[in-house]
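Re: your question from the hallway

Yes, I did run it. Sequences:
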Amino acid sequence: MSRSTGRSRNAAAASSVFLASILALTACSAPGGGTTDDQATADGDTVAADGDWTCGTDDVTLDAYIETGFPLSAALFDEFEAQYPNVTFDVREDQFAVITQNAPRVLADDPPDLMRLPQVSDLAADGLLYNLDEAATALGWDEWPASQLQQMRVDDEGRRGDGPLYAQGLNYSMTGVFYNKELAAQIGMTEAPATLAELDGFMQAAKDAGITPSTQFNGGATGGLAFPLQALMASYGDVSAINDWTFQQPGSTIDTESNVEAAAHLQKWIEAGYFAEDINSLDYSMMMGRFIDGESLFIFNGDWESGNLDTQMPGNVGFFLMPPLEEGGTVGAMSAPLTYGISAKAENPECAAFFLDWIATNDEARTIAVEIGGSHPMGPSDAFMPEVDADSVTAQTLAAGATIAEDNGSMEFIANATGAIYATSWTPNLQRLVAGEIDAAALLASVQADYESEIGS
Amino acid sequence: MATSRTTGTSGVREAVGITPHSHEARRRALRARRLRRGWVALGLVVPAAVAYALFVLQPLALTIQYSFYEWNGVTESTWVGLENYSRLLSDSRMLGSIGNALQLIIYFSFVPVILGLLAAAVIRKFATSRLALVSRTVLFLPQVIPLVAAGIMWTWLLATDGLINEVMRALGLGGLTRAWLGDTNTALPAVGVIGAWVALGLCLILLLAGMSKIDPALYEAARIDGAGAVREFFSITLPGVRQEVGVAVTVTVISALAAFDIVYISTQGGPANSTMVPGLEIYYLGFFSREVGQASALAVVFMALVLAVVLPIQRFTREDAR
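Structure:
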């Protein structure tokens, strides 16, 4: 017995020495720092080496880190390689959630020339992204409608909407309401609702007919009710106030009177049973599967699915923007570029910027953006647009995009206000709203409190 | 004891006529052999020790270090002392996740250990038959299925139109059906059921092995004394596998507290954080909120909690074994 005690004492002493030496090794300096590029200036800005915004004639390999499951990028890479044979893409793909969580470390340690990014404010503020201002001037992006690039501008306080440009879009997407035309005909819905009250009526008619009005997703860490909620916010109030909030403008709040009314409208839909019974366990792919199988009249989703729905349900899908409170009122929609950035340490930033410019200005690339991406290409207002089948849902989403532009109703997604607000605040609170644990007012108060705590930290 | 052995040895030495000189040479040879053995042992231990230091102790020490900083994982960090720890105590979400982990112990540990004991006691009775082999295989199967696959499979089974609800409807229990993983009241128990299903195989095999060591004469004696199956179980089987129960409880309690994969796949902590566990919370804090310091503080507290729960179990079973 005394022997075993002695042995354990020795072992404990050895472990202590071991741990102490490791602690001594690790505790000599504070973590972090020293990861920004040599080219970076004090505020994280980078400058092009020689301002030649092309891919040149020598062989170039562009490292791209992109989202898996979206055929648009691959199609654009193939076309670009065909037009510029000296360029080869070295592509790594991951799920969007993986890219989102890995973004800072990948940009710092394994710098890609092109990377699909979540919202860019934190990354730009940390000096991890290439400043594209010179490219914008050299390639003429300054002449595009300013609203296209606004969401990718970040000032030195880390607020979006203004400041240097840190990313570019493959195209810009927009959300609204898709509906199944066959099911709509069954309840006498022959055209899109003109007011919110009409939409309410169609939801009720579907429920009465035994059709699930909406199989919107709201499970896991992705609260899909944020889609209809934000659209309702635009119907009830002013989109610029919502943009101020997502762009982290000082003093902005999501907990406004009109937003509470919008959330109360959503709560009314939940209580009326307009969403699938298992909404809190539905993920995005389940929602799409059920809609394509004809199990739901509406889904609140974005035009990135237009091409897919035209293929899966040809001629059977319609699209409309969330209707206003009163007929003829202004409309709004979440609209954001499919954002790609360049690492501040990228090897070929100029070629990467040239590729991003080519997507917006080359006729073939714009055709791919519309036909495969299902969304409106970036670029000048008078740029080439491919012919689209008038009966397709893609044609309807493109037309809706024009309406949003006219009404100046474009909003950044409220889920992108901060890096964690979607997973840790919007989602659990929207799930609580479904579970009847909170009401509309408490939902917005809680999100606002989380937002302030994150911005403050 | 050591003294008597020395006396004995010197007696033998005198008897066989070993001289003091040769005694010295022998002692030197012994010491040299012991030294050689020591070097060999050290050579064998060092690679493992280096790997352990690099991949276990260093990350552990770094986690402890990071917990005293506010750091986003990339830029300069700021020393905040114990602030991350004090925030832990006031954050209902983080405390809630610890509460959920403690609740999961019931499903991941108690349920499979109890079911494993009952199943093993039954299988033991027909141990040599083919049925026993089939039962063991069927019950052990969940243990070899990757947790991610188990999570996906159970997500389908527990869906509103999944097999569980279909069976309930067929049995006339349609009124009770629900989205088990999508309801704030049932999501945590539903995740628990998945964990119990996975852990049952390990517990069963462990306990069956323990039961096979019990002397059959004990059962015969008990039967002669008129003991029934229940009496047999409580008087012979259960005391006989106490050590195995200890191992099973330790392993499953750790898996309950450290649950990540099953929860991530089936609910991602939702709905409304009802299945949020510390492992997932650390992941969200570290990778989504980019609060590496806060995530590290939770990890340190969580590690202490695991030790606080597991060490008494270890001690209890060790003392019992004696």
